[in-house]
Amino acid sequence: MEKPEVEQSVSTETRLPTNDPVVYKELMVAFFRALKNYAIYPFDHVICRNAVTDFETKLGEVLSEKDLFRIDVENNRLLHEGTLIYQSVLREGDLPHILFRDGIQWIAFQSGIDTDEILRFLEILHRNRHLKEEAEGDIVTALWDAGLTHLHYDAADVLWDAEPLVDFGSLDLEVASGERKKSSSGSAESPEPPGSEDFEDKTSAANLQRGPMKEDAVDEETAPEAPSALESLQDPEELEKTGPPDSDGDRKPSGVAAFLETQGEVVSIADPEIDRDLWRLTEAEQNELRKMVVEEENWDSIDDVLDVLVVILHEQQTEADYSTILEFITEEFQMTLEQLEFQLAADLLDNIRTLKRTYSDPKHWAPPLIDRFFHTISGPEVLNALGQFRSEPAKLSDDRLKTMRRLLLHLHPRAVHPLGLMLPGTTDPRIQKVLMEVIGSLANTDPASLEKLLDNPDEELVQQIVFILGHLKHPDSVPLLTQMLSHPSASIRKRAMKAVLSRGSGALSRLFPLIEDPSPEIRTIILDLLSRRKSREAESLLLEYLSDGRFKIDEPLHVIACYYTLGQCGSFQSIPFLRARLLEKGWRGIIGLEKPHERQGAAMALMALKLETAEEILQQAARNRFASIRRAYENAFEALR
Amino acid sequence: MNESSQSLGSTDAGERSPSTAEEGFVKELNRLIGVVKIHEENNRLVIESAENFIRRISDLGVEEDQVTIQFIRGQVFLQNQKVPYRRELEPILNKLCAYFSKRGIGGLRFYTTISDASTRGLLTFARLLNMAGNEKNALTWFAHKLTDEQIAWVEIVHEPPAREDDPDSETLDLAAIAKKTYVQVLASVKEVAQKVRAQKRAGIGKTLRMAQNMVDLMMADQSMFKALSTIRIYDDYTFSHSVNVAILSMCLGRYIGLSKNSLERLGLCGLLHDIGKVEVPEEILNKPGKLSANEFEEMKKHALNSVRLIVKIQASRDRKARLLLPPFEHHLKYDLTGYPQTDRKKPITLFGRILTIADVYDAVTSPRVYRPTILSPDRALGMMLKGAGKDFDPILIKVFINMLGVYPIGTLLKLDTDEMALVKETREEADRPRVLLLIPDGKGGFDAGERVNLDARDPKSGEYLRNIIQSYHPSAFNIQPADFII
Prior knowledge:
The complex is a heterodimer. Chain A is mainly alpha-helical. Chain A is 54% helix and 5% strand. Chain A contains 32 helices and seven strands. In chain A, a hairpin with a 5-residue loop joins β6 and β7 (180-182). The radius of gyration of chain A is 44 Å and the shape is elongated. By secondary structure, chain B is an alpha+beta fold. In chain B, β8 and β9 (446-453) form a beta hairpin.
């Protein structure tokens, strides 16, 4: 049942002039309806689409008469040219309130605004309806970022109630003498203004150095003598010791502070002897600069960020910080999957595994955190990001697939379930193959990870999982396979059966219950299996089954087939049982308690045994005084002719 | 008021301390306008505000029977005296200036007969003032309404014409906005830093808004914006340095043609690039001397700390991913011989290279506790040029020099006329910028003098009227350039 549309528009059979306040109010109603429906429905839902279209149409009509439709914002009211067009109860989440909250004083729609801009505006309002504490931004920052060409606004500062402001003239400046003085505008206590003789004093480099440099803990014997400024800049080796121009490097034990003390030696760039061409850009440099800008504007950060994050991770000294970085790496990893950047993702996981190996202390807290990371990224919340590649298989080259495989093999067996769920929607056989291989490899360390998939209602998927299960070497896979022998689907039971068979030893005893499988095909396969060669195991199983006489599949042909199979796989050990079944209690036929198919089956089994003793028993049956026994022999003979 | 304000200096002798009555009047006017906007007229707060306002007028109007408030070129005058700004009052004064400017009202004169007016009448006046903001011809509309409502105890005072040699009011408004922006940016960065230091959740909503305001300001007037980077706050170096680095980086970014959104991001990177220093012990940060090897190792960690703290910030994955690289890189140097040393050998990003330049320039032109001498801006550029290709991107350092000019804004010059001057604007002939002459005020400081172009020549001889003899860093003479040139 569809949800009802929110708010019905007022019928406008008679068109009012577009400057009529009623028109503006209707426009607002349409806007609110669009906003509410945008919040409730996906955009391609007919209700949402209609509401947005309705607003766009009405807005277009208004804008056809005026270039700009401006809405002034007050705390709970919206006005246009002084006329109230909307008033609400002051309530968090109301449009006037949220606009007012963020300082918007007015917004204006300009003619030319299109659907895309309207939608982006609605999205901004929707996303910023309720601001969390310590929000990343608000409507104003979102509008700024969006840069909507045909939507204008003005915003006041609302983030500060009464921010202290600064009289820059009163800020403390450290003067060279080491004493604090106020800046010269408005200061009562300042040094005498310099006269020309003072200028000379001040301009000498020595006098510019004021105050002693406090000696540090650096050993004076090892601290190199401070070189002159130019020498240190020209000699790369010396630069290593003295410290290059660096905002903190000048504080190194043998740093730039030394040459800064001899400021007079640092030449001004304005010096007439310096060639101005030194900072003139060549054409090649200008081109290079343009290229830098283009690259930056199109920069995708993931590659570089991932690199740095692993470096940062390694440097963390506390568990909490380590976890924080790993959490962020998880988010970045998810982004790489969404963008199909498998190489980056694979490299990242390689690096993290390598990092884990560096922790030699078994008690270190980092390896378990890394394990937890791999556990997390193996979950559906992260791996579902891979979903899109299934619908765009063409984007995956063979190389890329190889890389995807490498990446997925890093995951924890927990990934088996989400990866398995991707199989049904995957049509590209190459991708299917990779998924199956990865699932198999991961499940081989923990077959139980396949369990959930085996319960999936999708038969095709279960088929594939059983196939994988059949190839696992892990011993824990056998019980799972055995469970599948009882699966409601015959085709799955058949697949499981084949898988069990491929395991070799112990297969017969596990498969034997299928002798009573509802599927005739499966029963046939089992009997065929049992009959392939003489086998004590098969003979014992059949003897026990037939002796019991309680057949779930109480069909004559089935029973006969079982007996015959006994004959094919059995030995003289079966003769006493078969003799009794064929020759004893012949009187049952007289009183109507005969089980003719069992007698016939026994006869056929004896024939299949091809033993002398069996032949003698058959001759006895052929000449027996009870018709039921003679009949059993004759029927068996006919059946095998 | 947050703690950060304590380090920003205090009002000084030489400024007139405002009387309580004047301050009270201004605050009450602001309050009245505000409460009438939000509450109904019968609200107790509204009535109280109206009564207080009338009382303030009575207090002030004892001698002249009237109280005149005027808004002239972004400043507030009360009874023809400029209201000097104090920290607490400034936001209110700015708000009132903008409020009345929007309505085209140059001032109001209240007569003491207001005490006979009804509260309702006063509230009507306030309400009309608010509504005028929505009118096309606000001033005319408001004047008519006053007449219609028979409000005789107040009249509109028209703003006197601007003086020819004064910058126009728009420029003054922009100057006020620029200063306000700087302080707000500083405060927002501190707020984030304080929260991360206290291991609290830190959002960057304010900082983001400020970064956007910075971009807007830069687009409106790049010179003024650049001039903000000359601000030096000795007691608050770390944060003012971050703001200055952001400003310089954004200027460089704009110069090379980055988009608005990239400039916003660059600004944020600049603002947060040293956030990791909140985890460096204060005694190391402020040590008045050389660092030991261990101390320097501790200091170096801030680049990595910055990344971790940015990861912890409340922001989207995408935004954080785009913010954390440049702070990591800004000490690596162009040739990757800096720190933190890692196996990663990729070239640093464009933003990282930009930040490196801005960071070093601001640092070497700032007075520091451990380094009493600082380079004048032109010498700083001379030094940095030598690092091209090794410490700095060789193309970007050239661009930086071209952008700032050989005498960057804020450079203090000695002229051959025995005058001192501050570079106010760089020009095409870079060696001859536009300067603001400084006139000794006889009390050890300077007053702003004339603005002159150094390429001005004597019409008869053709010789330049003034030539540069020497350049200095302004702090050597206790000068805060922003105070003069913004």
